[in-house]
Amino acid sequence: MIKFIEESTEYLKQKGFNNPEVGIILGTGLGQLINEIDIEAEASYNHIPNFPTATVEFHKGKLIYGTLGGKKVVVMQGRFHVYEGYTFQDVTFPVRIMEKLGIKTLLVSNAAGAVNLDFKKGELMVIDDHINLQGGSPLAFKGVSKLGERFVDMSAPYNAEIISKFESIASEHNITLHKGVYASVVGPQLETRAEYRMLKILGADAVGMSTVPEIIVANHLKLKAAAVSVLTDECDPENLEPVDITDIIAMANKAEPDMITLFKELIKSI
Predict the structure, then answer these.
(1) In what residue span(s) does the Nucleoside phosphorylase domain sit (predicted)?
(2) pLDDT at position 58 over 60
């Protein structure tokens, strides 16, 4: 893997990806942030050596470099998921590349279902902690200790200082921002009524199919990490309505301007 990381990083440096400070991963239906970036370089995933290729039709497949909020950023427009058939190492490979390029902070976004029924669709949740229900770890491979500490501490995987800044920005801009626990499942099917009840018992406030592997690797690499969920549906097992993925994407698009405000203002303050 070290050789693959070096090859990918060298390719991107030659394309002009020079010393970004912040890495950003954009989730389902959350691509409009790109319009806020003064783009200086970009690379399609299928052109980057050793990179996985996005297979989900509503996920773009580009790595973008430029300036946002006065800082150099590298942005994943489209991410990878275990449900696409990728390994945990594939899913998190781009995080390792972004760290090698120079990032010190990783900001992650996702679309998630609201398990906590006090949270409503169209609102945002900053993730304070998570529950890994994906059945594996991106650190469970031979030789991982050559890339960082094998037994990574996860007592505080989400940076408290960034969370506090997100809360202040939300307050200043009248954005509803909850704080809670994100449960990550494999998918791609949505949850049953019984599974939503289980998630509630476990203490989850929201559920999705991403983010946790990337956050684990960010902590492995000692990056400051934070994540925001756009709540796209309400998961009430007693009144569960069928959900269409197009509805989820539409809700993500509707709520995205608030997330963009959070990310832009935070990056300015770093």
Answers:
(1) 22-268
(2) no
